Amino acid sequence: MHISSGRWIYGLCLALLTALLWGILPVKLKQVLQVMDPVTVTWFRLLVSGSLLFIWLASVKRLPSFKVLGRKGKILVLLAVLGLVGNYVLYLIGLNLLSPGTAQLMIQMGPILLLISSIFLFKERFSIAQGVGLAVLLIGFALFFNQRLGELLTSMSEYTAGVLTVFLAAVVWTFYGLSQKQLLTVWNSVQVMMVIYLFCALLVTPWAHPAEALQLSPLQGWLLLACCLNTLVAYGAFAEALAHWEASRVSATLALTPLVTFACVAIAAWLWPEYVQAEQINLLGYGGAVLVVAGSALVALGPSMLAGWRARKARLALE
User: Fold this and answer.
1) Nearest residue to 257 (alpha-carbon basis) of 59, 105, 41, 89
2) Is 99 helix (H, G, I), strand (E, B) or coil?
3) Full residue range of the structural domain in which residue 33 is found
4) 3-class SS at 287?
5) For 274-294, how does the pLDDT look when each residue is reduced to its tens digit (9 = 90+)?
6) 5-14: buried (b, 16+ CB within 10 Å) or exposed (e) per residue?
């Protein structure tokens, strides 16, 4: 079992860096999507990230071996590839229809769905604290959509389609998450990411239009490059954070990502109103976003809270 190094301040900084990078990602993607289609943007992101990981693993002679996979492992790779491609493309389609903040908040359902799936598939525990966190999260969503709840429930508008598309992106991401969890028993995280990224890029190649990159403005070109490197750096910081801090606390910190997105949109809309539009959300909606983040953090911290409670109970019994 992995034991963190105990350098929690370093782990916290890395987790915050990950939240920052993931938080600003939809703001950058929104600008690139004005010119490029979601499939092509996904192709560029996956190809660049996968190629850089391949170069690094080849240089240190740690390329993964497919011989250790077996038939079950190859099926897991296929599920992970389809899940990640579906997640990337569906998220970008939804982002085209929604504001960055709304899309980022909806994609928070991915880890929650992964947790629920793990309970049934891997018989993992679901504590009372996690149940409370899930209830808080659902209440938060209801408050966040207070201005357009009727629209969401009664009509298939562009907004409703965007919300459902991002939710579907979270659902298919669950297949990726479950498959990756199993693949980590034979490969390390970098090897898994390299294989999945490159296979994903290969899968969407027939539908990609790389020439669209020539239509980007210089600013959009730099933003596309930043989007390509964002995934690589963010996941690297995430993996390193897990080496120095408990996974539950890292996950709870990453729950702040939607708030980072809302803050970045507000700042960008103030500095560059010709490029970025401010979020059209009332005060109750922002309160709902905070509840979603709090609920996500509570769900992530549930296992460690349960372990802490049991440890305290055991100490009291010995006294």
Assistant:
1) 105
2) coil
3) 8-318
4) helix
5) 888 888 889 999 999 999 999
6) eeeeeebbeb
